[in-house]
Please model this.
Amino acid sequence: MSLPLVVWPACFIVTCRDMIDGMRMDLVKSRYETYDELYEYCYRVAGTVALMSMPVMGVDPAYKGPLEPVYRAALALGTANQLTNILRDVGEDLQTRNRIYLPLDELAQYGIAEKDLVAGMYSPTTGRMDERWQRFMSFQIDRAQQLFADAEAGVDLLDQKARWPVWSALILYRQILDAIEANGYDNFTQRAYVPKWRKFASLPLAFSKAAMPQLNPNYKKMMAVRR
Model:
């Protein structure tokens, strides 16, 4: 079930304008004081894409509940993907573009200043990543993981043909977060990536989740909701 053609263009125009505004933000903004500011950026450059994709993918015809939870899940997935990109590319963004896509107030809470980021966040005594950075990154990864969990709630409500690619994207992007942790939170000199073999190995899991949404313990409850 896709949105009526009368409704879809209006939704598309608003979110498309927001996406363009997100592109413009990179022209004038290179620092983000708070998570709220960063969230706005993530929404504009990635959340909008998820929202615009929703009418194309469609909703399971058997689902008779409100569409808001489905759109909220789509927005959560788009935001989670963008946050994952940000956490993966901290060093590259800073060194090549002079951009810090991290909440400065949260960095300060962990005792991290911009000069520390420029230096690379290595501990002079251990040669490993500074403990402050490890704790900060762990907090940021937990936030992204929660957004992925929020997104999971809506994937099973998508049209059957759309569920497999969306589950695949969700699972693979989560593995980037795992790779950051496996690298000891070093996203200054190492780029976290998912090996090709692991990507292929994840596809059967994504397919099984897409083909059997009833395995989701909340699926029956969600399908029972009526508008």
User: Anything to note?
Assistant: DSSP finds ten helices and two strands in the chain. The two ends are 15 Å apart (CA to CA). Confidence is low (pLDDT under 50) at residues 1-7. The first helix runs from residue 8 to 28.
